[in-house]
Design brief:
Order of helices and strands: EHEEEEHEEHEEHEEHEHEHHEHH
CATH superfamily of one domain: NAD(P)-binding Rossmann-like Domain
CATH architecture of one domain: 3-Layer(aba) Sandwich
Structural class: alpha/beta
Radius of gyration: 19 Å
Largest sheet: 8 strands, mixed
Number of strands: 14
Helix content: 25-40%
Length: about 300
């Protein structure tokens, strides 16, 4: 019998989200191929395609896909934001989209769906303002990089029948990202929050993020920009206090002043100090239901099940 599974290509699959997403894609429905710089555990060699997005080159033989999911991009907080580092952050995102488009156009291929990652950094530092998908872009490097990222994704989306762009919040998982760093000081009975602690931290359980990707695939009417954040709004101090309660730890909530963060991290302190009161308006209106709608439920599941 012919293989009727949809062919899915994931760029940036070696990262936190990509690895989890692969496990949640039903192998009876989807045949998954990975675009990457190097092979990693869990990916068969015949489903790995090497690429060099900095040169806009895909080296391996890639099948015509039905769906492309682009999660590629250097970590925003992996190093201080020198001029060179800033350019590298932007290029890693823009070049990945351009490489995919160039390859598709060379094949005359028009796949069904392009799912492109973006981030809530698009909105900049907005205090307590409620931010929906229709809110304007902000200012600062985080916003500027997201705007260029989304522009490249939109240009690539022209080569597809449908485009879904996901503005992702802080992904909660023990596998990487912010949560393990916030847990580190818990062993010392100290739980640190940043600045005044009243800045909003839009968060999402990693499984709900992956479920949102699957929802975009299964919902033929899904298109455009979606905020992928949990509906419950929490401040930085709220999040750290919830982590403390989940761990059942006695200890202190300790403030790390903004001035200290600025001295240590420079402009990159924006990652910790910016406030984004983002709501998942379009996902909710479209019928998506978050499995982990509260920070208490999310952290309990992640810590207890080691996700």
């Amino acid at each position: 019998m012919p293989d009727t599974r949809k062919k899915v290509i994931i760029a940036g699959a070696s990262g936190l989200v990509g690895r989890r997403l692969i496990t949640m894609l039903d192998p009876h429905r989807f045949e998954v191929f990975v675009l990457g710089r190097r092979l990693f555990d869990g990916v068969p060699t015949d489903h790995f395609i090497k690429w060099r997005p900095s040169d806009l080159v895909i080296e391996g033989d890639m099948p015509d896909p039905d769906i492309v999911i682009n999660l590629a991009g250097e970590g925003i907080a992996d190093g201080r934001w020198s001029a060179k580092r800033k350019q590298s952050i932007i290029s890693s995102r823009v070049d990945s989209a351009r490489t995919i488009k160039a390859w598709l156009d060379s094949r005359g291929c028009c796949p069904e769906l392009y799912i492109a990652a973006s981030a809530v950094g698009y909105y900049g530092d907005r205090g307590g303002e409620v931010l929906t998908e229709s809110s304007a872009a902000g200012v600062g490097f985080l916003s500027e990089s997201c705007q260029q990222w989304e522009e490249a994704s939109a240009n690539t989306g022209v080569s597809f029948k449908r485009l879904c762009m996901l503005r992702i919040g802080i992904v909660l998982s023990l596998g990487g990202g912010a949560l393990p760093k916030l847990l580190m000081t818990g062993m010392l009975r100290v739980f640190a929050y940043f600045g005044h602690g009243r800045q909003y931290y839009p968060w999402v359980h990693i499984d709900d993020l992956c479920r949102a990707v699957l929802w975009c695939i299964d919902n033929d009417r899904a298109s455009g920009v979606y905020n992928v954040v949990a509906p419950e709004k929490k401040t930085c101090r709220d999040v750290v206090a919830a982590i403390k309660r989940t761990k059942g730890s006695f200890g202190l909530l300790v403030q790390v002043p903004a001035v200290v963060l600025r001295l240590a991290l420079g402009e990159m302190a924006d990652v910790l100090l910016n406030s984004n009161r983002v709501v998942p308006e379009r996902l909710t209106a479209g019928g998506f239901v978050f499995r982990f709608a509260s920070i208490k439920e999310a952290l309990s599941d992640i810590v207890n099940n080691k996700k």
